[in-house]
Write a structure and sequence with these properties.
Layout (H helix, E strand, L loop, with lengths): L2 H12 L2 H5 L6 E8 L7 E8 L9 E5 L6 E3 L5 E7 L9 E8 L5 E8 L5 E6 L5 E6 L4 E6 L11 E4 L17 E6 L5 E6 L4 E8 L4 E11 L6 E6 L5 E6 L4 E8 L4 E9 L12 E7 L5 E7 L3 E7 L6 E8 L5 E6 L5 E6 L4 E7 L6 E9 L3 E8 L1
Antiparallel strand pairs: 1-2, 1-28, 2-3, 4-5, 5-6, 6-7, 8-9, 9-10, 10-11, 12-13, 13-14, 14-15, 16-17, 17-18, 18-19, 20-21, 21-22, 22-23, 24-25, 25-26, 26-27
Length: 386
């Protein structure tokens, strides 16, 4: 019997139905889960999380989609954007992004789909002003900008930044060419950062949200460790630091950030694995997130099957290891912290379960709530207030 059925039955025994499946909207957040379709998924799923009790409703299909590998919400909460991975192709039609309108029940209704002039879209973000969607496409070495219409739909591409330099080839199987793996915009909406796994760099662009353009910054990048393979990137809420996880060397880089000129400089790099992890063990990191209060940082380990926990020095941005939390599954591809900073939700791709943890506000430690939901091939978690 599936875990979700076990969970639902247990909740019915322990709590009244109204408590088990209908958390108070005033104290709840809606969670969207992007999935791949290779094990029967139909698209993007949703459930509600009670922020007081930590209980979740049963997952439901929010909207049909094909390989919705990464999601992002509009700042207004009215629209959701999802990448589509149609597979590797020889033209510019292999990556798409779809805009959805969100109705009162949380269901998604497609507005339109636009090509990104890239191949294998793997990450999407929306600028802070809600004017543009930016998409990183792994296989084509490109980052695209698509302006947002008044109805939340997407206009055609306004700009494409292409990484033309050769890959570092430190890892010939992954770094033979540029591979943008994420794109993020700073809180002021002035700079965009593209973590490129194939170049061992975080590229820096001046971003014009009105024109929807990306222009190489001066300095144009920060170099990370050779063979590291930077994957994802997250800014500290104080705007002074940023962090990038290196997928291939299982490290996370702490970076200082100059908001005036967009410059990033590496402070230090630290392993995400425990000292007793076997030297011949296989692991890759996937996601990095800073806690909303800025005290803690988390990185997911695929292989060790854990979330690495770090404390952040408020004055220097340096990281200190604070332990590891098992993810109760395999291949934690993505996780996200709710805006209140109380819960961390992990999408375990291989075991097809979504696990909810409560965050210890003093130590940053993760305590399982006992809530595990079955969702086919989950790969991305995003929150929306109710």
């Amino acid at each position: 019997m599936k875990r979700s059925i076990h969970l639902f039955s247990t909740l019915l025994c322990l709590f009244p139905l109204s408590l088990a499946v209908q958390p108070s909207s005033a104290e709840s957040t809606r969670v969207y889960v992007g999935t791949y379709n290779d094990t029967g998924s139909q698209g993007i799923y949703r459930f509600d999380l009670d922020l007081e009790t930590g209980r979740a409703t049963q997952p439901a299909l929010a909207g049909k989609a094909t390989n919705s590998g990464f999601l992002e919400l509009h700042p207004t909460g009215k629209y959701l954007y999802a990448t589509g991975v149609a597979g590797i192709s020889d033209d510019d039609t292999g990556a798409t992004v779809t805009a959805y309108d969100i109705d009162i029940s949380g269901n998604l209704h497609p507005i339109n789909t636009q090509p990104t002039k890239g191949i294998a879209a793997c990450h999407v973000t929306v600028d802070p002003q809600g004017k543009n969607v930016l998409v990183a496409s792994y296989s084509s070495g490109t980052t695209s900008v698509l302006p947002i219409r008044e109805d939340g739909g997407l206009r055609t591409i306004s700009d494409v930044a292409r990484h033309n330099e050769p890959g570092t080839n430190v890892d010939p199987s992954r770094q033979e060419a540029p591979h943008p793996h994420s794109v993020n915009v700073d809180a002021a909406g002035r700079f965009a950062f593209v973590a490129d796994l194939g170049l061992d760099k975080v590229k820096i662009y001046r971003f014009d949200p009105d024109a929807g353009t990306l222009t190489p910054n001066d300095p144009p990048h920060v170099e990370l460790e050779p063979g590291g393979g930077p994957r994802h990137f997250h800014m500290h809420p104080n705007g002074k630091f940023a962090y990038a996880n290196n997928e291939l060397t299982n490290t996370v880089a702490a970076l200082s950030y100059d908001a005036e000129n967009g410059e990033l400089q590496q402070i230090h790099s630290i392993t995400t694995l425990p000292a007793d992890f076997p030297s011949d063990g296989v692991n890759t990191t996937a996601e990095v997130r800073v806690h909303p209060d800025g005290k803690f940082l988390y990185v997911s380990n695929r292989g060790h099957e854990s979330i690495a926990i770090f404390s952040i020095d408020a004055s220097t941005g340096r990281l200190t290891p604070s332990g590891h939390a098992p993810v109760h599954g395999k291949q934690p591809r993505n996780f996200c912290i709710d805006p209140t900073g109380v819960y961390l939700i992990v999408a375990n791709q291989q075991t097809e379960n979504v696990v909810i943890f409560r965050i210890d506000q003093q130590t940053g430690g993760l305590e399982p709530t006992g809530q595990e939901l079955d969702i086919p091939t989950p790969v991305c978690i995003r929150y929306r207030g109710l």
